[in-house]
Write a structure and sequence with these properties.
Structural class: alpha+beta
Strand content: 5-15%
Number of domains: 1
Number of helices: 4
Largest sheet: 4 strands, antiparallel
Shape: elongated
Bound molecules: 2-acetamido-2-deoxy-beta-D-glucopyranose
Radius of gyration: 18 Å
CATH class: Mainly Alpha
Helix content: 55-70%
CATH topology: Butyryl-CoA Dehydrogenase, subunit A, domain 3
Distance between the termini: 7 Å
Strand order of the largest sheet: 3-2-1-4
């Protein structure tokens, strides 16, 4: 039981870190031929990462940015609530609040990454001749799976 809680705690921290990295690093779509990449904020096509993104659907990108930031906030809140409940909650109760918050995080990731996948993940949107998904995109989908599993486990587990 304690091992399981410790395991979830570690996976939760890993998820928070991965969400941070994937939101901040501009490596969502990478060119096959050069090291050029684009992310949620910047266009790293010419050497340094300070090019502006020139997308047709600016609003969708803003929504992705917003949902990714929300997902970070909710995952951190969920972690704090979990630690708090670990020390204050009576035995036998479920980690309902941390679970519910983590599922909200999961929803935010789902909406954000779905919009990105729909509008931007395809290579033609980046104007690279040929491209593939960068590690940020993959990390975000991993976080999508992890946050769901963590959320469900929090709801199911009882404090012993
Ligand atoms: C990124 O910058 C390059 C070079 O300036 C440009 O050709 C490309 O269209 C830009 N991509 C996006 C998504 O803004």
């Amino acid at each position: 039981m304690l091992v399981l809680l410790a395991g979830i705690f570690v996976v939760h921290i890993a998820t928070v870190i991965m969400l941070f990295v994937s939101t901040i690093a501009n490596v969502w779509v990478v060119s096959d031929t050069t090291k050029a990449s684009v992310g949620l904020w910047k266009n790293c096509t010419v050497g340094t990462c300070d090019g502006a993104l020139e997308y047709a659907h600016e609003d969708a990108l803003k929504a992705v940015q917003a949902f990714m930031i929300l997902s970070i906030i909710f995952s951190v809140i969920s972690l704090v609530v979990f630690v708090y409940q670990l020390f204050t909650m009576e035995k036998g109760n479920r980690f309902f609040l941390s679970g519910a918050t983590m599922l909200v995080c999961w929803l935010c990731i789902m909406v954000g990454v779905s919009i990105y996948t729909y509008h931007y993940a395809g290579g033609q949107q980046t104007f690279y001749y040929r491209s593939h998904h960068g590690y940020c995109f993959i990390l975000t989908w991993i976080c999508f799976c992890f946050s769901f599993i963590i959320g469900i486990l929090y709801l199911v587990l009882r404090k012993k």
